Fold this protein.
Amino acid sequence: MLRTLVVLLLLLNLIVFGWTRGWMDSWSPLKARGDREPERVDQQQHAELVRILPTQTARALQTRDCLELGPVREESLAAVQAQLVKASLNAGSGAGQWQDLKTEQGGVWALASIKMPNKEFQQRKEETYRRLKISYEYLSGMPEEMPTMILSRHSSEKAAQAALDQAAQHSLKGLRVLPLQTPQTLHTLQFAQLDGVLKAQVQDLFRTPPQGASLHSCSAPPATAAAASAAAPGATTIAGHDAR
């Protein structure tokens, strides 16, 4: 009886020893080290690269923000996309990715005078239009065509040609159809889910945006977009007058 008890005690000690060493963790429901899984720490690679982040940096990583770059013109798009790929920012809808929001912008054609050959001709035109109560403005942004008077703007070449024909019927001379803006596709690149680190990366990448574009919050559209929408005001009508 005593011999049996000694054997049982030895066996029990061996079991307890094996359990404390973790030898039975693979099949025992009760782990030697509780619910911890230290083997995961043993399996991790480059543990020396793990850093504890300051609270401010951790909060920046948790914050999500939305930025937009635009409007980007078609001729600048490829260069912008190359910058993004180089910075490992790819198209998509996830964190750190971007989407291309396209906007079709119509053309603008003007009913305009010919380029004024001299100051005397220009003064005669001004006097004629004032006498006939025809409003006009001077063309800007096209040095090779200045000075030129703009009488009306139109959203299609056909409408501008119709205005020219109407002016000709009323003997208004020295006018032409002048294209001010060709139809084009504008691109707005939207970064919808940027954390603080990625936001800083995008802001640094486009510290100098492409010409005509800006980097801004998604809730604040750029001034250039408003300017573009104002580029094609409603066409004005020229009253019938006889001008020579």
Q: What stands out?
A: The first strand starts at residue 65 and ends at 73.
